[in-house]
Amino acid sequence: MKYAGMQIKMILRFLPKAALVSVVLFAAVFILLSSFSDDARSGEEYSVINVGVVGETDETFLGFGIGVIQAMDSSRSIVNMQNMTEADARFKLQNGAISAYMVIPEGFISSVTRGEVKQIDYVTYDTTGGIGTVLKEELLHAVSVMLVHSQKGVYAMQNAVISRGMSENLGKNTDELNLKYFSLILNRPDAIDVKVDGVSNGLSLAEYLLCGLSVLWLSLGGIAFCPLYVKKDHSLGRMLRRGGCGAFEQTLSEFAAFYFGTLAQLATVLALAFLGRTTVSDALGDSIPIASEITLFGIAKLFVYLCIPVLMICALQFFAFMLCDNAVSGIALQFFGAVCLCYVGGCMYPSDFLPEVVSAIGNALPVGVAREYLCHLMNGNAMNITVLFIAAYSALLIGASAFVRRIRLNNI
To answer: What is the reported pTM?
Structure first.
């Protein structure tokens, strides 16, 4: 207990410096999040995918059809089709002016009237994991399904009419069925209910990034404490062990003080967020509604809930302290370890857009569990299954830290 009290006193003396580092890191994360929020609020230009159309469309019904779809279809807020030459399309694709372009072969319309659908080439960059890529793949799949099944329906109707000797009305029936399909496709929003699930756990991208970047900020907070807990000389620890304070007791005492210091950092930042709630609301309120509802009681309750994931993150940081024997290596491990783990854990980029294996690994990491907890907390579900994983990780990491300390104390 005496050693724990000594550690608390040392933390209190060091706390102003650590709090200053934490506030600076928080300001950087807040600026990053608010800049993203500004982009999200800037309008339709960030949601529209520009697609180039290459081919002779002006002298055929195809150009008319594209114009009608652009004017009438609900997808016009997602896809904007522009006529251009193939050379222009390649240049604009390389410069990011368009996301893709499609090349319509010569005689496409006449081939369709004969029941033959020529291939339309769709050209884009071979990128994976991006939101735009996912959306383009979904759009192409939807178009393919509508085209194939409507074509099957028309051919089935024609075969049925011919087999029954009613071919005199074949042209009329084909036109009517095509118009019905066309009407059904254009009016599909009236036939379905649209549910927006968000990026993860029903959260918008801005809310998700708030949770993820909060974990990143907490993970970087341990950098300020490296001078205290990264040690090369363990003579004091050996002396304490001879006095009856073993490796586990020393680890627990130091970790308790470190946890207290991190919570003090968190309380400082939350207090500043409350005092500057008008600024926070103006910067984030439109994209993150909860930012415009900051109250003293809400801040206090948030602090209590955040004590749970902070325990695990502190345990991870403390374990990193034990692995290093000088401040430089400790700072490097804390920084690069936090950035790498948070990226893989989906804190800086939605985990669903990462490769499946990477996403699965990231979600199982401590930072991934912490992010998942904050996502549940954002939805009003503070007590969920992630709490058990947090408790298990915390106990495991504290035990591992004590084991490493014991090895170091035994190495004379």
So the answer is: 0.68
Beta-bridge partner residues of 121: 103
Question: In this structure, how many other beta carbons lie within 10 angstroms of the beta carbon of residue 334?
Answer: 24
Task: Give the strands of the sheet with 79-83, arranged side by side.
Answer: 79-83, 49-54, 100-103, 121-123
Whole-angstrom distance, CA of residue 56 vs CA of residue 89: 14
How far, in Å, CA of 178 to CA of 174, rounded?
A: 6
Residues 327 and 229: their CA atoms lie apart, in Å, by: 9
Pair type for strands 79-83 and 121-123: unpaired
DSSP letter for 73, please.
Answer: -
Q: How far apart are the first and last CA of the chain?
A: 26
DSSP string, 160-198: HHHHTT-GGGHHHHHHHHHHHHHHHHHTHHHHS-----T
Residue 358 CB contacts under 8 Å (≥ 6 apart), including other chains = 344
3-state secondary structure of 81: strand
Phi, psi (degrees; rounded to nearest 5) at 203: -95, 150
pLDDT in tens, 217-263: 999 888 888 888 888 777 887 888 887 888 888 899 899 999 999 99
Residues 6+ apart with CB under 8 A from 264: 11, 15, 19
- 259 with 311: CB under 8 angstroms? yes
Partners of 123 in the β-ladder: 101
φ/ψ of 344, rounded to 5, equals -65, -35
